Amino acid sequence: MTEKRDDLYLPSREFVEQAHIQSRAEYERMWKQSIEDPDTFWGYIAKDFHWFKPWTQVYRGEPEIGDNEWFVGGKTNICYNCLDAQIEKGRGDKVALLFQGEPEADCKRFTYNDLLKHVCRFANALKKNGVKKGDRIVLYLPMIWQLPVVMLACARIGAVHTVVFGGFSAEALADRMLACGAKKMVTTNGYWRSGQKINAKANADKACMLCANAGLTIDDVFVVDRMVDFEVPYITYRDTALSKELMLDEISDYCPAEKMDAEDPLFIMYTSGSTGSPKGTLHTTAGYMVYTYTTFKYIFDYKEDDIFFCTADIGWITGHSYIVYGPLLNGATTVMYESVPTYPEPDRFWHIIDKFKVTIFYTAPTVIRALMNQDIQWIEKHDLSTLRLLGSVGEPINPEAWHWYSHYVGHDRCPIVDTWWQTEAGGVLISTIPGAFGSKPGSAALPFFGVKPVVLRSRTSGDEPAVEADVNEKGELCLASAWPGIMRTLYGEPERHQNGYYTQQPGYFFTGDGAYKDVDGYFWITGRIDDVVNISGHRLGTVEIEDALLSHPAIVEAAVVGYPHKVKGEDLYAFVILDKNSKESEEDIRKELKAVVRSDIGPIAVPGKIQFVREMPKNRSGKVVRRILRKIASNEIDEISDSMINILAEPGVVDEIAQNRIGDK
Ligand code: ATP
Ligand code: MG
Question: Which ipTM score applies to this complex?
């Protein structure tokens, strides 16, 4: 049993005894060294990788202005380290990738040997068709096994991949292609989504046309066949069927790995676009490699026999770092699943855990809340006893969801790591290290190695120096160090890189998130700084209010935004989703919600308006896009632009919510 002490949940003795790091003191010692002597700390870890040429300097740069280089002068290849190096360590016959397609029977196991062969063949096919080192290439691919294979093939030959979430529209895809100037793309003939065959190629074709209209000609579109009997039109001078290329005799099973400079670009990844237009974070080779390896090993307390299942989409940084690169660099077995958690029934994740005997499960609060709203029999009918550790990522996890996750999924036995980070970071920045110290529901806990978070008071003028907030005082979460996985720039937008991260609190990396630190040094994320609402001079973080609303048993999702109010300056507008089994009237629930907020936080935080909605406007990574809700609440619906709508998983919900907007009395 995990032991509870106040709100601190400690790992069991059995867990601690087998863990990589077994005490807070040991963690503190390592963290201190990582900050005071990063060269020794990271140099020691990096020497276990395969280098074509060793580095001459571990770190060079000026972290205060975002100028960072790691493993300077070294030559390596991340694909080589993910595959060849694992095979050299004797893992050739170990399962590297377990792919579960949407149809249950469509399940594939790839050993490290198999994966290397596929990756080499794809790499050779791309090379034969002119893809070379330094080319930017967009991968408009859904969650099919070919996606990690093509990513690794690109990394092997030095092409810079940009994965664009498969569910994005042609417009959203074209925006990203134009932003990174990629003239090559890999896509698929189709994929499964909730029993439907989705035609990805039609969107890809339209995006190419949109790019051409904007002056960017797409030279090559490579098409992967995911569907067997799904014909899509080909444009002969531009499109190449990769399945046919792969059958050619000249495509060999081996492709040498390009010797990449430590700082050569590895990929460009667009942020989720929750707070503004997406930013193309550029990640480079060696630092990202060493950082994802290390975070995966210690945060998930990874051991050789673990089966790791991360439910994120690979079109999001979490999928890059914790489905593909982090696990493979550790020689792990990683599970990837093509479709949604509720198809064909709401127990698909539990079924996958049972089927593959998953030991570590990593998902998002939005998924947990959706699944805890289902009948309990869906989870109880599966054997989840192989699980030993659970993770959460993407947004603060509200205590109700934390407890449900811990009890029903973790059987009060598995530690939970709440991992706070962002696309810009490459890997997790703040988390529990599960054998070393306990978790507090709702807190991301302590910084990872190499990460030095500080909570600063907000500055009102350019001349003010940075001032650290007191213990328990809310402020702006900033980072005072450089870690190897940090993005190097925003691709093509160096000024936005400077202005967006290094000017708000000069000398620090500005995360855009609010937080406070408690007496135990634990960090609590209070949401986006932009989401702070100012009511009659009181600054309120919306996460706290959402947590209060979510503590009502009839509420499954809640999002709170501010809107202009004549008297108070701003007032609060809450959007909530009701539990489908709730029998109470909306009016009664409204009254109860107001009462809950009043007693949990105070009268000042009671939302003036509460609207019941069927679905939230969520982006591809499952986050509520509050800037759209703010426009609706403020009655500025005309200002909701296409680019805001394009990032949504279900764009139609915006009209629906806008139509039912609660007006002013
Ligand atoms: P954009 O930067 O384009 O507005 P985004 O910030 O949603 O989009 P991501 O990089 O995918 O894009 O998300 C990172 C953000 O997600 C963090 O800054 C934080 O606000 C939130 N987040 C992620 N994990 C956690 C967590 N464990 N606890 C609290 N918040 C989290
Ligand atoms: Mg962000």
Answer: 0.99
